[in-house]
Amino acid sequence: MSVYKNKNGKGWYAKFRYYDWQGKMVYVTKRGFEIKRDAQKYEIDFKAKKSGSSSMGFASFAELYLECIAPRVRESTLVTKRNIIQKQIIPYFSNKRIDEITATDVLHWQNELLQKTNPRTGEKFASTYLKTIHSQLSSILNYGIKFYGLRENPAAKVGNIGSEKGLKINFWTTEEYKKFSEVMMDEPMAFYAFEMLYWTGMREGELLALNKEDISLRDKSVSVTKTFYHVNGHDVVSDPKTAKSKRVIAMPVALCEEISDYINMIYSENPTDRLFPITKSYLYKKMREGSQKAGIKKIRIHDLRHSHISMLINMGYSAVAVADRVGHESISITYRYAHLFPSIQKDMADKLNDEMER
Q: Angle at Cα 56 formed by Cα 54 and Cα 58, nearest 5°?
């Protein structure tokens, strides 16, 4: 073991060598360890990484996993994954090697998650969030199976917790939305932003990435080709969520006229400037204030998209047509909204009754 104490007697450092993938000898020195055991662990984990061994510590392996996927996912996705791993997974498994983790360990970890609460709200984790956390652990262990000789995935053996269907889908009817839009008219930028969200069904990030070039007043359409998000202190405009997200949305004539007025109002000479140079937090604030002022139930920004989808289903459009408009990767996602208008069931019964009485 190549671990040494610093000359001043305070702290430790690791100094060792290894052979890289080309067979060349490489020397490594790493300082800054307070105790000898941490320096020894660093050397063991480092060599395990380079040799493709499953004997490295979980924390080091999780970092290796993140390094591998970093070039393959969006920066915002990477930040989300890193936060979940560091806050909800590593604290429990940090003292274990990945090949030491058992199904029982995963089960105990799940039980702890089920009892944890959100420090901001005091409420237990949502079912969908629990599912996301577990899936992230399973992804790390699957990575170990595929590339580092891990024999099995104990997370897969135990099974997931939570559910994709745990989150209730809220929406506004057209009447509720019109009450909201009326109270927003005194704030033009917010008003026009909400009009676009409700009447096109686009995602918030897609809205915030729009510029003049994306709007075709002649064709009465808006092209969705990118998304906007704020991460690590800077603004990012990138490709949209999925391949299906790139689409052209036909706008109602009334909406097209409103956006024409808005474009003329903002006086921007650069066609690539963002049409709505605002943040998601700005929209959240205005939606909270507007719904309270209008006396209607509070919903999330993303629920405006739910509202648009639900409205189209209520109008009788097929799941395929709706999925194409809103950029769903699968029509099965669209089908989740079909229950939101119970009036459809009465209409069905009335029409069946008409058939029976013919």
A: 100
Calpha distance 42→140 (Å, rounded): 20
**CA proximity to 154, closest of 166, 167, 140, 168:** 140
CATH assignment of 174-345?
Answer: 1.10.443.10
26 SS3 class: strand
CA neighbours closer than 13 Å in the CB half-sphere of residue 45: 21
End-to-end CA distance of the chain: 90
Cα 136 to Cα 95, 109, 133, 312, distances in angstroms: 18, 13, 5, 34
pTM: 0.67
- What long-range pairs does 87-94 form, CB within 8 A, spacing at least 24? 88/113, 88/133, 89/62, 89/133, 89/136, 89/137, 89/140, 90/58, 90/59, 90/62, 93/58, 93/59, 94/57, 94/58, 94/59
> Which CATH superfamily groups domain 3-158?
Tyrosine recombinase, N-terminal domain (1.10.150.130)
Structure tokens at 190: 């917010």
pLDDT exceeds cutoff 90 at 288: yes
**What residue segments make up the domains of the chain, in order of their start?**
3-158, 174-345
34-38, 167-171, 178-182 — which is least confidently predicted? 167-171
Helix axes 75-84, 58-69, angle to 10 degrees: 170
- Cα–Cα separations (whole angstroms), residue 12 to 16, 24, 44: 13, 27, 15
